[in-house]
Design brief:
Elements lengths: L2 H14 L3 H19 L6 E5 L6 E10 L8 E3 H7 L8 E6 L4 H31 L4 E10 L2 E6 L2 E5 L15 E12 L2 E7 L3 H11 L1 H4 L3 E9 L3 E8 L6 H6 L4 H9 L4 E6 L4 H8 L7 E5 L4 E6 L4 H5 L4 H10 L2 E6 H16 L3 H12 L1 H7 L5 H13 L1
Parallel strand pairs: 2-3, 11-12, 14-15
Antiparallel strand pairs: 1-2, 2-4, 5-6, 5-8, 6-7, 8-9, 10-11, 13-14
Helix pairs in contact: 2-4, 5-8, 13-15
Length: 397
Amino acid sequence: MNQEFIRALDVIQEEKSIDKEELIQAIEAAITTAYKKNYGNAHNVEISIDRENGDIQVFALKEIVEVPENDHSQISLEKAREVDSNYEVGDFFRKEVRPRDFGRIAAQNAKQLIIQRIKEAERNIIYDDYLKRQDEVLTGIIKRIEKGIVYVEIGKLEAVMLPSEQTTGETYTLNQRLKVYLLMVKKTTKGPQVNVSRTHPGLVKRLFESEVPEIFDGIVDIVSISREAGSRTKVAVKANDPSIDPVGACVGQKGVRVQNIINELQGEKIDVIKWSDSVEEYLSNALSPAKVVEIIANKDEKSAVAIVDDYQLSLAIGKEGQNVRLAAKLTGWKIDIKSKIDYVNQHNESKTQNSGLTEDILLELKEELESAEALELMNSSVSEEDVLFDNISDLEN
């Protein structure tokens, strides 16, 4: 080895970000291992590479003792002091040796180790690069699909999209360009493995950030997202500027902004909800597109009853309970949906049991509730509980 070798290490350090000193120490260790393997009789050995000119020196090491028992590994203090009078018992005597074919062995091992370290460095660079981009949306190209796993080429590597991260109803084809959410980056013996997703709520969040400048600039915040990928998503937003309509900013003029996101998600429905610090208002908004008449909230238990008109009941609940399920997940509240009639009847029974009313009075109460007057009252701005109590008071009088 020579100065050209040292210059090559300088280039590697600059281009691959591999520390030169660490690399030299690793080469010394690799050559030491190779030396012991090929020249087993001299098992105590030290390899030294000159940092300036690249020359390699091999030193056989012998322990200094009073009376040697093994000539290969020990030397007497008397003989050692013939070379250097400062030696003491317990020190190691260093003698330079130059075995036959050692230069070839050293060069081979140095080359192998450098190649290995360069590969490791490149893997680490790729790992660090993608680790910084975790939780971001990246665009890739589908290169292969095997056993239900979609492999997406993103830059210098193939990302993995497992079946659990694929959206039901979406179709994936070779060479298809696709936006994916970078879910996880981990090191493996074969290099960094990147897992991506099309189902994660973070995908929706990042798409809104790219489509809505007000979100990107921090004027509008996304408070919460609940998603059933491929079907429906609810996004709660709030404005940090009172003059800004957060829902309007996200939807865009003529719905262009939100439609771009819907198109990217291949038709997934998106409800943009205005967040409110009023629990009743927030829960009511979360049940959109249904119109809520009243919210009765139990703040201690974080549970609420949402009262809707009869014709709004199925819309509030949603297909297979999806709307109320997403609203509950969005807000973190347990939500029970009741029609106005069901709610009044339920409280009717509860209050009757508590007051000990007779069956005759119950019958009269039922007839009263079914009368046109009661229905008219229920459609007014008066709450259902007030209507019920008024009817009971009338009957008692």
